[in-house]
C-alpha cells in the first residue's frame, strides 16, 4: 500500500485515541462526537451508537484511508484508525461536502439513514439537548 493511511470515521469513531482496527478493543459502545479542530463554530455534540453500528455493518462502511495524493483508499483490516478530523477539517482543503468533520458525518450518516431508517435523520436523534 503506497501513501499515507488515514482513516475516516463517519461521525463514528473519531474522537478517541487513534487505534489499529483489528485490535481486540473495538472502541466504546457509544461515543460523543464533537469537533475540536474547527472550534470557531462548534456544532452541538452528537451521540453515536458505535456498538450498534458495528453489530450490523463492516468497518469499511464508515472507515477509510487516503493515499499521499489525497485519494480515498478502501479500509483494510488492521489499518490504523485516525480521528476523522485528521483530514476532515476546514484547513485541509477538501471539497465543502467533506471539508469538515460535521459535513462529512452528515453526508455519510444521513445518506445511509435516508435509505434505511428515515426517522433517524432528525437533528434531535443525534444532537441531544
Approximate helicity band:
10-25%
The poorly predicted ranges are 1-21
Q: Could you report the average pLDDT, rounded to the nearest whole number? A: 79
Structural class: alpha+beta
Largest sheet geometry: 2 strands, antiparallel
Enumerate how many helices there are, as a single number. 3
Number of strands: 6
Neighbour order of strands in the largest sheet: 1-6
- The string of secondary-structure elements, in order, is EEEHEEEHH
Distance between the termini: 43 Å
Q: Care to describe what's here?
A:
With 129 residues, the chain is an alpha+beta fold. Helices cover 21% and strands 12% of the residues. It has three helices and six strands. The strands form three sheets. Strands 1-6 form a two-stranded antiparallel sheet. A two-stranded antiparallel sheet has the order 2-3. Strand 4 (64-66) and strand 5 form a beta hairpin. The radius of gyration is 14 Å and the shape is globular. It starts with 18 loop residues before the first strand and ends with a helix.
Output the keywords.
129 residues, alpha+beta, two-stranded antiparallel ribbon, disordered N terminus
Task: Give a brief rundown of this model.
This protein has 129 residues and is α+β, with helices and mostly antiparallel strands.
